[in-house]
Amino acid sequence: MEVAGAGLTDESFWDDYWSSVRLPLQVDKSSGFLIARITDVFDRFLHGGGPLSVLEIGGAPGQYAAYVCNALGHAVTVLDNSPLGCAKARENFDLLGIRGDVIEGDLFQPPELPPFDAVFSLGLIEHFRDVTGVVRAHLDLLKPGGLLLLGAPNLVGINRFLLRRLSPSFLSAHRPEATHPSTWDAFEDELRLERLFREYLGGFDPAVFWRCESRRLSDRVLHQALRYLGRGLDQPGLRLLREPNGRYWSAYLMGVYRLGHSPQAEQMAP
Questions:
Q1: Residue 115: burial class (beta carbons within 10 Å; 0-12, 13-18, 19+)
Q2: pTM
Q3: What is the mean pLDDT of the segment spanning 17-30?
Q4: Is 45:268 a contact under the CB 8 Å cutoff?
């Protein structure tokens, strides 16, 4: 039997990942094309209705929670299992003047927490083999009628091909099937989620291939070419080339769901 909490990474992986992050860090519409599209989804579904309690899972160092707090006016909490990531998130909130909570804990054995109006994670579910189990753990922290927002890098199609060639060990920390539409169909059906939104975002984004492990000259040339292409596509005049989206090339997949029904959920829906 597969254990939902059996991930492809551990605390040490994330401690190492966050060790080089420079603070303060907060995303906004100018942070990049993909980030602008992700925050557009936040704007659409987390608007109005008074302050909400919003939990970000795996949220270190809190840059998206900071956006939800400062741009949308909600009370934010970050839950993460990386001690260093949590320390970074606390420092980040202090530097940004955000009165948010940062809790170090395991999603599958979390500390006692009140249920939240909205729960989100970005770039988390693809690190687990049992995607449905991970999403179910998100729902355990959500109020009936609350909103669940999920985002994950698209690791199929051209993205998977290039990552396998340039960064195979990095790819091994992810489950590419986690962003296949059939996987999302499966957890939506099993968990009886009401889908409000599910779309690919960001178009083709060469920034996905920021890491090159290969020593082959052809791969290093390819990596450099992708870097230059990314700089070009991020220019305002060329961003229209990133508007088309599809499962075989887009950078990101994002979904928004409602858990059950309540008057509050009706107010939160767009």
A1: middle
A2: 0.90
A3: 85
A4: yes
